[in-house]
Amino acid sequence: MILAPESVARFASMLADRSRAAMCIALLDGRAWTAGELARHAGISAPTASEHLNQLVQAGLLVQERQGRHRYVRLAGSDVARLIEDLAVVAGQPAPTRSLRTVRAADDLAAARTCYDHLAGALGVWLFDAMVAAGLLATADGLALTTAGRSWFTDLAGPASLRPPTSRPLVRGCLDWTERKSHLAGALGAVLCQQFLDRSWIQRVPESRAVRITADGELAIGELLGTRLSVLDLQLQ
């Protein structure tokens, strides 16, 4: 395939605007947002947000669906989410925050958050390391699910979890932009995140990609991986 510089430049320009970048980053939580919600998040007017969203949909970064009067948009897929997360890694750490509110929000994101449909932040990295230590994942010759890992996921989410409906890899390492270490992505990264949500081991933070570990989750996740999980330790990293 021949890469056309004009096409690359045009695609990259979609994320060169601060408002468009802010909306795409918000959509890394994996959910669908309305245009109005994204406008408020980016601090711009609704007409301006709609114009930006139209461009992002046309560029293939977002997909949209309508329900009644509302238009919902989401990231076009895990590949787009990975692109945005990788850009965050290359861009480096953000400038220091000043207000107490923004400091707390940044700390929440660093401790535990979703990266599209899988878990990231200190929690995501802790899970990845714990699964490697437990022999569920092997890293010697590239990331791979072990026989013990297949049994573990079958017990957790059923045999269908090992047969994803798409060609998405079962496991993939994703470099975490705050921890600079790998967390678990791929089809089973999504399974793990959804199982934790369904069991109320983690809860989403409203209007944020951050998630919080519940008291039951702190105990259950540690027992699941045969080790100790400390929410305080994650927050202090």
Envelope shape: globular
User: What Rg do the Cα atoms give?
Assistant: 18 Å
Total domain units: 2
The low-confidence runs, each spanning 5 or more residues with pLDDT under 50, are: none
Q: Averaged pLDDT, please?
A: 87
For the secondary structure, the number of strands is: 11
- What is the spatial order of strands in the main beta sheet? 1-3-2
How many angstroms does the end-to-end distance come to? 43 Å
Global structural class: alpha+beta
User: Could you give a short account of the major beta sheet?
Assistant: 3 strands, antiparallel
Chart the SSEs and their pairings.
Layout (H helix, E strand, L loop, with lengths): L4 H9 L4 H9 L6 E2 H8 L3 H13 L3 E6 L2 E6 L2 H14 L8 H12 L1 E3 L2 E3 H13 L3 E2 L5 E2 L1 H11 L14 E4 L6 E4 H13 L3 E3 L6 E3 L1 H10 L6 H6 L1
Antiparallel strand pairs: 1-3, 2-3, 4-5, 6-7, 8-9, 10-11
Helix pairs in contact: 2-3, 3-4
Overview of the structural elements:
β6 and β7 form a beta hairpin. α2 crosses α3 and α3 (35-42) packs across α4 (46-58). The model has no long low-confidence stretch (mean pLDDT 87). The strands form five sheets. The chain has a three-stranded antiparallel sheet with strand order 1-3-2. The protein has 237 residues and is an alpha+beta fold. The chain has two domains: 5-76, Arc Repressor Mutant, subunit A (Orthogonal Bundle), CATH 1.10.10; 83-236, no CATH class. The protein has helices spanning 5-13, 18-26, 35-42, 46-58, 78-91, 100-111, 121-133, 147-157, 186-198, 215-224, 231-236; strands at 33-34, 62-67, 70-75, 113-115, 118-120, 137-138, 144-145, 172-175, 182-185, 202-204, 211-213. The protein has eleven helices and eleven strands.
